[in-house]
Amino acid sequence: MPHIALLALLALLGTLLIAALVVLGMRLRRLRVMQAEAVRQAAAEAREQFGRDVHDLVSSRLWLATLRSELAYRLADDDSPLRPALADVVQSIRQASADIRNVTRSFRDVSLASELANARAVLRAYGTDCKVEATEAELGDEVSAVLAIMVREAVTNVLRHSRATLCAIEIVVRGGVATLTVANDGVDPSTPPGDGTGLDNLRNRAAALDGVVGTVLDPDGWFRLIAEIPRRGGDRR
Questions:
Q1: 3-state secondary structure (DSSP) of residue 38
Q2: Same domain, 58 and 78
Q3: What is the model's pLDDT at position 107?
Q4: How high is the pLDDT of residue 184?
Q5: What distance in Å separates the CA atoms of residue 147 and residue 213, rounded to the nearest whole number?
Q6: Which of 17, 45, 167, 192 is 20 to 30 A from 34 via CA?
Q7: Which of these three, 108, 134, 167, is where a domain ends?
Q8: How far apart are CA 96 and CA 103, in angstroms?
């Protein structure tokens, strides 16, 4: 009988040892999964930080360089030997900007706050006073990104197509709708109503979120781009 009890005890100990090894193996696998997830998360955060750094430190400067080189090209005489060189500079900067956008597109979302800050800085560097008023309201990610793109496009048009001394950017949220208004005082009242690929693209972006985009040219030369988009994108509640 004693040897039977001993065998039973050994069997029990063996079973417990196997169970302990199984539990240990499961915990080790979970630990490896957690470590792998932590590595992936750290890598994702590093990529996002890289994208933010590239955008904040480089993109706005390239944007300003593009606008200034375009101005220099337009001011150069038609027969000036500088025009071909300036045209090459403009094209090179545009390509560099496009390359950076392609590199950082997968790393980060467009930041509305960053675009508003860049707009103010670029306009003032170009000699145009800029006033920004933005309601602190929670917006959907898509809505925020589209508004950021609209701010960038509108400010680019202000610098390219007007002689504005003042540009006012306003974002308000009322009744579940976010309204962006970009106004400037530098458009000739006799200018035909604005249209074209850029405005069509903005209208298409807004329409994808059940929004609308329109323009108004006042007799005193104030031009306004107005966009209305449900704050949650497709939801006007």
A1: helix
A2: yes
A3: 45
A4: 95
A5: 11
A6: 17
A7: 108
A8: 11
Distance CA 148, CA 140 (A): 12
Q: Residue 89: which domain range? A: 1-108
pLDDT digits (tens, 9 = 90+) for 109-168: 567 888 898 888 888 888 899 999 998 678 888 899 899 989 988 998 888 888 899 999
Provide the 8-state DSSP code for 183: E
Which amino acid would we find at residue 135?
T
The torsion angles phi and psi of 107, rounded to 5 degrees, stand at -95, -25
Give the tokens for residue 142.
């898509």
* DSSP 3-state of 136: coil
Q: Tell me: do 117 and 104 sit in the same domain.
A: no
Sign of CA dihedral 20, 21, 27, 28: positive
Higher pLDDT pick, 89 / 204: 204
Cβ neighbours for 58, distance < 8 A, ≥ 6 positions apart? 100
